[in-house]
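INTERNAL AUDIT FORM
Audit reference: QA-55
Scope: verify that the stored structure record matches its stored sequence.
Auditor: D.O.
Record contents follow.
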Amino acid sequence: MTKEDLNQMCQEYQQVLSMSETEVFAMYEESKADCIASFEAEIDFWENYFGYKY
C-alpha cells in the first residue's frame, strides 16, 4: 500500500463522514448490488466449469 492509496482512503473516509445517512445508504445499496452480481457471475462460472447446477 502506497502513500497515495492511504491518501485516497482518507479522502473517501472524509467524504463518507460528510454524507447524509441517505447518501451512505444509497452508496451501500449500489456496492452491494455490484458485489452480489459479481458473486453470482462467479458461481455461474464454476457451475459451468464443473458442469452441474445445484
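Auditor finding: record pair retrieved intact. Residues 3-50 form one domain.
Action required: none
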